[in-house]
Amino acid sequence: MSDVEAEHGPEMASVPEPEAEHEAETERVPEAEHEAEAERVPEAAPASTEAPPALARRLRLGRPPAHWLLALALGLLTVVMLARGHRDVGYARDEGVYFEASRSYAAWVAAVAEHPGRLGDRKLRDQHFKVNHEHPVLMKTLAGLSARWLAAPAVDPARPPAAPPSGMPEGAAMRLPAQLLAGLGVALLFLVGHAWGGMGAGLLAAGWFILLPRVAFHAGLHAFDVPIAVGVLVVALAYRAALRRRAWGIALGPLLGVAIAIKHNALFMGPLLALHYYLALAWARWRHGRSITRAQWLPLPLLSMAVLAPLVAWALWPWMWSDTVARLQEYLEFHRSHSWYNMELLGTNYNQPPMPVSYPALMTWATVPTALLLLSGVGLWLALRRDLRAPAPEGSATPRFGAPLPRGWSRLDGPWLLLLGLFPIALISLPSTPIFGGTKHWLTAYPFLALAAAVAWRELWDAVDLGPRRRVLAPVALALCLGPAAIATADGHPYNLSQYAPLVGGPRGAADLGLNRGFWGHAMHDLWPTLQQAPGPLYLHDLHELARQQYEREGRWPPQLRPGPVNRARSALLFHELHMAEEEQTIWESLDTTAPLQVLSLDDVPLTSLYETPPDDPHAVP
After folding, report:
1. Which residue among 66, 84, 264, 390 is the one 20 to 30 A from 118 at the CA level?
2. pLDDT classification of 152: cutoffs 50, 70, 90
3. pTM, to two decimals
């Protein structure tokens, strides 16, 4: 028996055997209770043609849950690193809007908490939730409450305090809920990967996700992209458990409702999981010759998603409590016809459809280290091959309404990973899909690609017999797999939205290829010392005014540096993108200089330039 086979992980993450599914009848997410009995671990098959047995086991009561403690430590480390590191990450364009909305939503919660009778006051509710009502409110509400509890008071620019106020910067406090969810995602990926293939697989799955430069960047923002990636992961794992366990079938709907309240990506989960379920039924009928019972046609997990998820999502979105149908139509139409942003791809600027079908695949290759992508591809192939080759196991349990695919019925983990890992990328590949945020719009695929890499890790190690050398070589191999991502993330901080994979050549290679350098007007960190002395008015360019006001609320914005239009500016910011060339020429003409005072760069690739009118310029605006 291998060391990996001796590991015991959360039964939620159990993997079906290729020869016979020795899976627990009750599957649980990591927070569920653990039963005392454990399945027997079969010895590894002697023949090379036989795949290894299942690797996941139920936790035995009384056994020290060291990997659970490690999962907790990894999650907390993620939160701490994001909370500290993102103090250096500037406020992105969307964050400025979300900060304003968060304060408004939290004020409504405070008003209702003080006067519960006002819960049904539509005027009060609409007044507070009208701002940014085109997006669900859960993360913004949590951010606003976090700021109320943890943030320092706002600074009056006219009367700055003698000493820094106590408490977190308000923006940092608002970013904290998203960072906590990122920590949860890392812990879950470690636990599932550990259950599938031991310590190395768990660390690989967690690192595959959070060490990617783009994931690390978005994970620390007051935004919804990493939170919804974690929400989708939770829903997918709960669904997988719900196929075995009635309790999870009931919980699945509310969990999906919470995910929908984070971001609209979760709306695809119901259809995708239903497709996977009926594919599993069809496979059982065609490949294994099983009879499909009446209880299996419309089981509890699907009903829970169809009935409970919309109710929970509606309950968590007070804007939808009135004129629900009309506002839901407005919400769907907003995202169906979302405006296009400018995006550079291979030296061409796109701001109108159609976008190249290759865009998400090319950008995934350009931003995810190649070794990790190869592991994911191999893992998907191995998982699919396992499902295709697995014969019908003997001694299966009887399907029930609450457990439609019980022990002995394949849950088709290969298609599960493939569907959830590739659908977001395929969706963005459609030429009619708006492109308005780069890689962040298919981050929901990455947890499942990370788990696919964990499958490959387990299978590849089991395919070679290294004996005692494995204890030495496994950590080295893990470092080689995760090292490029970790180094790139450390090198690119706090500008990881502009970081690229080593095979591309990092930011320099991406610039040579004509790939987008950045967006959102966040790249400000190294400019702050110079801005303290810059003359106003300042042309903000792509820095959102609400983001500037957030800096001002925290006492970080120079009081003399009032914003102004470019034709009256004495200083100007320029965030470098291909379509901004005309903006740069306008700045040259207005400030009567072509030489920037300071250029903020990543590996010598310009990201942001600060211009200032020459002191002796007779055209300078007083």
Report:
1. 264
2. very high
3. 0.88
Q: Which residue(s) pair with 563 in the sheet?
A: 538
Minimal CA–CA distance to 140: which of 219, 218, 227? 227
As a whole number of angstroms, the distance between CA 610 and CA 536 comes to: 12
At position 523, the amino acid (one-letter code) is A
Within 415-518, strands assigned E span none
CA dist., res. 608 & res. 120, Å (int): 47
Q: Say whether 379 sits in a helix, a strand or coil.
A: helix
Nearest to 487 by CA among 498, 473, 500: 500
| Distance separating alpha carbons of residues 515 and 353, to the nearest angstrom | 18
- Is the distance from CB of 485 to CB of 369 less than 8 angstroms? yes
DSSP SS3 for 202: helix
Burial of 49 per CB tally in 10 Å (0-12, 13-18, 19+): exposed
Q: Which residues pair with 344 in a beta bridge?
A: 349
Confidence of residue 340 (pLDDT cuts 50, 70, 90): confident
Q: What is the DSSP string of 439-452?
A: GGGGGGGHHHHHHH
Strands 571-575 and 538-539: parallel
Burial of 238 (0-12, 13-18, 19+ CB in 10 A): buried
CA distance 469 to 478: 14
d(CA 437, CA 433): 12
Provide the 10 A C-beta neighbour count for residue 296. 21
180: which residues sit within 8 A by CB, 6+ positions away? 79
Please say whether the beta carbons of 536 and 562 come within 8 A. yes
Q: How far is CA 16 from the centre of its chain?
A: 27
Residue among 204, 225, 222 at smallest CA distance from 214: 225
**Cβ atoms of residues 434 and 354 within 8 Å:** no
* CB neighbour class for 33 (10 Å; exposed up to 12, middle 13-18, buried from 19): exposed
Q: 12 falls in which pLDDT band (50, 70, 90)?
A: very low
- Please report the pLDDT score of residue 432 as a whole number: 78
- 425 near 443, Cβ under 8 Å? no
Asked if 75 and 186 touch (Cβ cutoff 8 Å), the reply is yes
- Report domain extents, the chain: 72-154, 178-492, 525-612
Q: Indicate the range of 180-184, 358-362, 394-398 predicted with least confidence.
A: 394-398
User: Residue 273: which H helix or E strand, with range?
Assistant: helix 269-288
Cα gap 382→62, rounded to integer Å: 34
Local structure of 431: helix, strand or coil: coil
* Alpha-carbon separation of residue 555 from 17, 155, 171, 423 (angstroms): 59, 6, 12, 44
Report how far residue 241's alpha carbon sits from residue 568's, in angstroms, rounded to the nearest whole number: 62
Q: Are strands 571-575 and 598-602 parallel, antiparallel or unpaired?
A: unpaired
What are 537's two structure tokens?
């008015």
Residues 369 and 479: their CA atoms lie apart, in Å, by 13
- The side-by-side arrangement of strands in the sheet containing 598-602 is 538-539, 571-575, 605-612, 598-602
